Amino acid sequence: MFKVEFFEDSSAFFEHAGEEWEKDETRNSLILGIASQLKQNSQAYGEQSPLMALVNGDDGQICASAVMTPPFPMIVQSDPLSIAALEALADSLVKKDVTLAGVNGLKETSDVFAQLWKEKSGQQARILTRLRSYELRKVEELDYPPGNLRVAKESDAAMAAEWLRVMAEEAVAGPHPPSNPERLLPGIRAERIFFWEDEGQIVSIGMANRPLAHSINVTGVYTPPSFRRRGYARALVAEISKRMLAQGYEIVHLFTDLANPTSNKIYQEIGFRPVCDYHQYEFFDQAVNAVQDF
User: Domain count of the chain?
Assistant: First the structure.
């Protein structure tokens, strides 16, 4: 038997599960990072209340966990995989009449949950992205393109928000947060948003976010089309990673889309090593001509 517990207090949610997730910060980086941010600010991802749930076995061991910040897909974790725990979670969500936009998590977990949700909710499931999670502990020696790293300033917030909006529309599946320069100000003040500049012109952007006990995530890496294939993004990520390691983080991790062989290649050149794969699904009500991929 499994007990599914839903939380309204984000601090209590993290206190119950954080230690378990922290056993492998790279494999659990998404749920751990989001839950950590919610612990600090329950509205970190918007004004709607997040969904937070744990599935415990008879011995009290956490067998599955989930967090969702609408309108984004639910992040689900069950590692080692427990199909029975995921089924208990799906049953509880259906009973509570919860609406899910989709699911994201370790591929084995999200594949199973997507199938369970299809069976129990009557919705269809379609895979959106196949992601690979990498981690880095040392930056390799590289040849750099012209230019240098620059830490973003508050006056850069509007431009940074616009570039990240364009990046999301181009490369990120599912719903996108609105362009909001103010939401970038904490990252700028923490000196975790960066540019690569060449002859005074900004040519690439990237950021470090979701800091954890031993690691931090690199995300939001974007180079406009006119500046691509010059090595700017590779140099930018390498320098961001060096800074984070110098600040005391043991690991830098990031996600790549497996449909983009270029990014997977350049990150491995920097020193990133693959750890695991994530699958993101969307759920929808259309019953005819649905594309399914399990």
Answer: 2
